[in-house]
Design brief:
Among the domains are: 64 residues, Ubiquitin-like (UB roll), CATH 3.10.20.310; 119 residues, Rossmann fold (3-Layer(aba) Sandwich), CATH 3.40.50.10960. The chain is built from seven helices and twelve strands. Strand 4 and strand 5 form a beta hairpin. Helix 3 packs across helix 4. The longest helix is centred in the first third of the chain and has 40 residues. The protein is rod-shaped, with a radius of gyration of 49 Å.
Length: 272
């Protein structure tokens, strides 16, 4: 008689071999709209809106910066808005070509990068130019306006004549004396020459009648200035001090018959 426990173990093994373990199969199923509570949906929607609102300024700033960078590169770094025309206003003594050469702005140089002040200074080095201004006119024009020096006298220099303005700047040299300008005789005309400044001070003080009769202002020395008239008479001026008083006295004495009138001391006038 076989032991009972052995039969029990054999039967248990056979029974185990006859049965198969269950296999679990998973399947994803989309939840319906009503699977998420309304409060959760509202919370998630508000969260998305907050994220969008927080990101919007950054997106706008990035777009603006990108656009500004593109515009700056187009204006500053390309020839799309380059200098294609230079317009000169107010030039008579100098030619537009001379002004363009002095400006030294290359063709197609970006208009926005032109140094207006430096360009005006370069143009101002031309002797006839008293001052110059430079402006941009978009999209491609540089406008140069010049104010030229006003001639007030001519200085004989050998067979030529140096034209000077009220400051004594020599800005023109001519082969003959210019019409309508008095002559100032000095050795070295220039704004830093004391004789030039003295002669111009006398010239500026002359009244209308004296100026109408004037031929030359001779500056032989700072205290030896002589005004010569059309009729050959001369007025010894002395130095340039009290020129307004001397001009008034000399004008009053024009009807007197005298070859030489000495107004160097306007309070004590002598004749010859």
């Amino acid at each position: 008689m076989s032991p009972g426990p052995a039969r029990g173990r054999t039967g248990g093994q056979d029974g185990g071999a006859g049965r198969r373990s269950p296999v679990r199969r998973w399947q994803l199923v989309r939840a319906g709209a009503d699977a998420v509570p309304p409060s959760t949906r509202r919370f998630m929607a508000r969260a998305r809106q907050r994220r969008m609102r927080a990101a919007l300024p950054w997106a706008v700033a990035a777009a603006v910066l990108s656009g500004a960078g593109l515009v700056a590169w187009t204006v500053l770094g390309t020839g799309l808005f380059g200098v294609r025309d230079v317009r000169v206003v107010g030039a008579r003594l100098v030619t537009p070509v001379e002004i363009r050469d002095a400006a030294a702005v290359p063709d197609d140089a970006p208009l926005a990068r032109v140094d207006l002040a430096a360009t005006a200074r370069r143009i101002g080095t031309l002797p006839p130019v008293a001052r110059a201004t430079v402006a941009r006119e978009w999209p491609s024009t540089l406008v140069i306006r010049v104010v030229e020096r006003v001639p007030v006298a001519a200085v004989p220099q050998g067979e030529r004549f140096a034209v000077i303005d009220a400051a004594g700047v020599v800005f023109q040299r001519l082969d003959r004396a210019p019409d309508g300008l008095p002559l100032v005789r000095v050795v070295r005309p220039g704004p830093d020459d004391p004789g030039t400044r003295a002669g111009l001070a006398v010239l500026a003080a002359l009244g209308e009648k004296l100026r109408a009769e004037l031929v030359t202002v001779d500056v032989a020395g700072l205290a030896r200035i002589t005004v010569r008239l059309r009729d050959g008479r001369e007025i010894f001026w002395g130095d340039a001090s009290r020129s307004a008083d001397k001009s008034s006295v000399a004008t009053a004495l024009l009807p007197r018959r005298a070859d030489r009138i000495d107004v160097s001391a306007p309070d004590v006038v002598t004749f010859k």
